[in-house]
Amino acid sequence: MVKEEPDHLLIHSGVKNFKCDECGKRFTWKGDFNRHLLIHSGVKNFECDECSKRFASKFNLTQHLLIHSGVKNFKCDECGKQFTHKAGLAHHQLIHSEVKNFKCDECGKRFTRKAGLTQHLLIHSGMKNFKCDECGKLFTHKGNLTQHLLIHSGVKNFKCVECGKRFTWKSDFNKHLLIHSGVQNFKCDECGKLFACKINLTRHLLIHSGVKNFKCDECGKRFTWKCDFNKHLLIHSGVKNFKCDECGKLFAQKSYLTQHLLIHSGVKNFKCDECGKQFTQKAGLAHHQLSHSGVKNFKCDQCGKQFTKKACLTQHLLIHSGVKNFKCDQCGKQFVHRYVLTQHLLVHSGVKNFRCDACGKLFSEKGSLSKHILVIHSGVKNFECDECGTRFCYKGDFNKHLLIHSGVKKFKCDVCGKLFRRKQDMARHIAIH
Question: How far apart are CA 313 and CA 285, in angstroms?
Fold first, then answer.
């Protein structure tokens, strides 16, 4: 006992006379120093019978075996987390102390433990020595590679009882559970939005920063987050692996399919306060509300027409391009937009779902019904010819009428060469031949 006491006192003295030339780590006792040297030698003579992992010293193997025993005798008084080793508990408790004495000179980030700083410095070095054999992705830390490999395994052992969603990693599972708890302790100072996890708030703040570092070479669209950028690239790849069982429509992303399925559900939870129109998706309501704002920031350089949304301007520009890629198999008529062709096909189907409340007449297209009501029942004719005073309901009819006064005859009969101002006049004439 007399001999052991002075040895023990060395711990409190802080004296560490044995220094490792390889890594600079220092030791109080020679025995610990010698065991440490085995790590650098690469010799691992002690193997775990449970998982075949090898160790440089018997002591390290003994400590490792406690993991397989499942025994966790060391509990944190702050959060209740349990640990197999006392050292693990000691390292964990530093988190609660909030003391971070180790600072990164590159970015200023601080760490509780020196090991954390050492691991972090590898990020700045740019070295990625750990490669995934499945996809070739490189990692700075072996631990990150190990975590990544779980993605390829397809194993998702953590299942949420609330919604059935499964997770590969426990950390993601725990973060997900916060969503169902309803607790949102992280608030955005910019817009007041609340979040369950700090990482979600951090991601959200990028929206306010306006930074979009990920640009699509195909269409020029920019993204704040890499994950959104990667999802977007699937659109250009043409790959659509997600199919709707209801209508057979294919989608590039699962999220698009999920949003689409709401259409078949018939559920419309988003209502416009201005006109009462309801929408299946929040984004649909947001787009619709722009029509009430009266703001039209997107102008056509060809004709000066202005639009509320950029997407509408893009669709409109196709009219000026003269390109008509959508052809009706029934009559050969061509259209600029797919949705116009879809509407047109109703004419051939014979289905007439749109009925006039005033006279009971049925129509294949909603647009035809609207025109009918305007012409027959409203009596409104806003387009007046300055030459003869004739009034028209539609601008298209008004423009055709103006050709009569212009004297211009564009349409020629191939049989007799007679000229006509309007195409329909020429069509009637051809019937004679």
Answer: 19
What b-and-e string marks burial along 178-216, b requiring 16 or more CB atoms within 10 Å of the CB? bbeeeeeebeeeeeeeebbbeebbeebeeeeeeeeebee
Residue 219 CB partners (closer than 8 Å, separation 6+): 236
Q: Which residues contact 375 (CB under 8 A, 6 or more apart)?
A: 393, 394
Write the Ramachandran bin of 185: left for phi over 0, alpha for psi from -120 to 50, otherwise beta. Answer: alpha
Residues 48 and 51: their CA atoms lie apart, in Å, by 6
Other CB atoms within a 10 A radius of the CB of residue 364 amount to: 19
Structure tokens at 302: 């060809």
CA distance to 326, 352, 354, per residue, from 357 (Å): 33, 14, 9
What are the pLDDT digits (tens) for 324-383? 888 888 888 888 888 888 888 878 888 888 888 888 888 877 778 887 887 777 777 778
Helix runs in 17-85, H state only: 30-41, 58-69
DSSP state of 244: -
Q: Taking the mean position of all CA atoms in its chain, how far away is CA 256? A: 10
On whether the 381-433 domain is CATH 3.30.160.60, my answer is yes
- Assess contact for 311 and 298: CB atoms under 8 A: no
Q: How many CB atoms lie within 10 A of CB 279?
A: 18
Q: Give the predicted TM-score (pTM) of the model.
A: 0.37
Q: How do the domains of the chain map onto residue ranges?
A: 381-433
Write out the two tokens for 239: 């790959």
